Amino acid sequence: MPISKDKCADRRAMYRELQRTMPGLDGMYRLVHALIAGCDDKTSGVLIVGAGGGRELEELAKGRFDGQITALDPSVPNLDLARDVASDHGSSLDVRFLVGTVDDIPQRERFKIVTSLLVMHHLRDDGAKLAYLKGLLDRLAPGGRLVHADVCFDEIEDFDRLAPIYLAHADIFGVSVDATRLELNAIPNLPIISGTRTRVLFSEAGLTEPFEIFRSLWYRCWTSSRAPK
Ligand SMILES: C[S@@+](CC[C@H](N)C(=O)[O-])C[C@H]1O[C@@H](n2cnc3c(N)ncnc32)[C@H](O)[C@@H]1O
């Protein structure tokens, strides 16, 4: 059953406030937008993996991207939020919503750009992260590009060093205490890996070395593509 409009509005407001907890995070979505808009092959479309919440769609709706977008997420309520965001922007985006993971996309489909923003840090490093990356690689069209973001720490102590800066930023810029705490409490419970481990997993999956395009506190975003055999 779809969630009610009011509940959706509350969740959207909280999700938007969560984005404000991370200094400059809107810049990451803008960079992803720029990469997608700069893609010259509109025919093979864009795959947004973990599209729940709708941040990617909200950002893309600000531009003139007219290619096909597949918005994929295994969580029905999260995908409903994304649908709600897209419907606010009328028919400006050509979006197909799919509930599921990359394995649920028809085998023959390949995409010029695959985005995977803030998804993999939810998966355990027991083979699940590697399988996830291999699944993303399988979805890339020839010459396609992966845009991948994750929470990432190189040293475990980095969280303790960065948290006071995060809290000071929230205080100065009036970010809601609930959102600030929600993000902070979630981080220690995620199966986060280092940049070094991320590079190893990319290599094992058959992807090129991730190239960093964005970093703020514990959020990082990279681009990558299929590694030559
Ligand atoms: C933190 S949210 C990020 C959403 C969005 N990409 C963004 O940047 O705001 C993570 C999303 O990934 C989804 N997710 C979790 N496991 C997934 C998987 N294996 N494949 C695709 N999406 C997944 C969750 O349901 C959730 O909506």
Structure write-up:
This protein has 229 residues and is α/β, with parallel strands linked by helices. It has a single domain, classed as Vaccinia Virus protein VP39 (Rossmann fold, 3-Layer(aba) Sandwich), CATH 3.40.50.150. It is 42% helix and 21% strand. The protein has eight helices and seven strands. The protein has a seven-stranded mixed sheet. Strand 2, helix 4 and strand 3 form a beta-alpha-beta unit. Helix 1 packs across helix 4, helix 1 packs across helix 7 and helix 5 crosses helix 8. The longest helix is centred in the first third of the chain and has 17 residues. It starts with a helix and ends with a strand. The mean pLDDT is 93. Bound molecules: S-adenosylmethionine. S-adenosylmethionine (SAM) binds next to loops. S-adenosylmethionine binds next to loops.
Name given to the CATH architecture: 3-Layer(aba) Sandwich
Rounded mean pLDDT score? 93
**Could you spell the SSE succession in H and E letters?**
HHEHEHEEHEHHHEE
CATH class: Alpha Beta
Number of strands: 7
Describe the structure concisely for a colleague.
This protein has 229 residues and is α/β, with parallel strands linked by helices. Helices cover 42% and strands 21% of the residues. The chain has eight helices and seven strands; from the N terminus they run ααβαβαββαβαααββ.
